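Postdoc handover notes: sequence design on the structure in folder B. Input tokens:
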């Protein structure tokens, strides 16, 4: 008996619909996993998601700095086959469908006044839209609520990290931070809630205005706002740190002189099996580099090559030692 194969165009359309629903936070996760259990469906979804994220990076070229290897590859393009042209057209058709579905879904969602909850698992990243001019990326192991107000919408980050992009003459957006209101103008903002209930907001572009204790404070690109229940602090932020903050939206981690202990703590946010130091003396080693957040292979290889630090994998942890 022959297997019944779903036509490729139909699979692409289904993958686009699932990606739009996941980005909007409206997908039935159990139904999605059942659909993705078929190899052809899983492959179509992976290819479409990769194309969609590539298009996302093209939308914000100022935050993407090509490496020398990328520049060399761009100057010597590989020959394009007929199959690659067909695949690319198919993927872009599907990506266009996702854009329309996601924006349309956002418009429908804003007609509801109750709070919408969007969450991600460890290692997962999700994008959703609010209307046609606001998009939110939710990083690994994060939880966010948003709701419509009379003149715009408000967002509350309960856990983890998010990036908020507001385009042009967007509707007013207020970030709720433990009872404090932060007004966001058109721009691109990174927000992270740390374990000690400290909230850090960094404008990658645009301005944000905090209203607290009867006073108003404005923070713009090149500065950061750190907010606790007792105080607020605005301080400069280095340009290199701005790039590091935006790296997670490309599924990357960018280290620039952090200690190994700090790098491991950051990496573990994305890993179901954590990295641990078997030798405490390694904590003070300082390192740099760009690594994939979804895989530790390059990171562990760099530690071995540059610092003679070896990794032992166990069922519950990856142990580092000399």
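Designed sequence:
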């Amino acid at each position: 008996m022959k297997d019944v194969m779903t036509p490729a165009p139909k699979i692409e359309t289904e993958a686009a619909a699932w990606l739009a629903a996941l980005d909007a936070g409206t997908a039935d996760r159990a139904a999605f996993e059942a659909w993705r259990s078929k190899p052809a469906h899983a492959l179509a979804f992976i290819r479409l998601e990769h194309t969609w994220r590539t298009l996302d990076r093209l939308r914000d070229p100022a935050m993407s700095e090509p490496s020398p290897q990328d520049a060399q590859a761009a100057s010597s393009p590989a020959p394009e086959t007929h199959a690659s042209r067909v695949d690319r057209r198919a993927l872009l058709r599907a990506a266009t469908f996702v854009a329309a579905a996601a924006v349309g879904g956002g418009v429908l969602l804003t007609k509801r006044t109750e709070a919408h909850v969007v969450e991600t698992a460890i290692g997962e990243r999700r994008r959703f839209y609010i209307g046609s001019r606001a998009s939110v990326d939710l990083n690994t192991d994060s939880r966010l609520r948003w709701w419509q107000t009379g003149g715009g919408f408000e967002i509350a980050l309960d856990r983890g990290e998010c990036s908020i992009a507001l385009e042009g003459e967007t509707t007013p957006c207020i970030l709720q931070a433990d009872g404090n209101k932060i007004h966001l103008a058109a721009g691109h903002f990174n927000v992270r809630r740390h374990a000690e209930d400290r909230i850090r907001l960094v404008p990658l572009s645009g301005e944000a205005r905090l209203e607290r204790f009867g006073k108003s404070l404005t923070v713009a690109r090149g500065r950061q706002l750190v907010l606790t229940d007792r105080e607020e602090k605005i301080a400069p932020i280095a340009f290199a740190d701005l790039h590091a903050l935006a790296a997670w939206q490309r599924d990357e981690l960018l280290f620039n002189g952090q200690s190994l202990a700090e790098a491991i703590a950051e990496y573990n946010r994305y890993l179901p099996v954590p990295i641990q130091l078997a030798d405490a003396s390694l904590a003070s080693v300082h390192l740099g580099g760009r690594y994939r957040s979804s895989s530790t292979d390059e990171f562990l290889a760099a530690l071995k090559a540059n610092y003679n630090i070896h990794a032992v994998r166990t069922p519950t942890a990856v142990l580092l030692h000399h």
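Context for whoever picks this up: The CA atoms of residues 31 and 262 lie 38 Å apart. Don't rerun without checking with the PI first.
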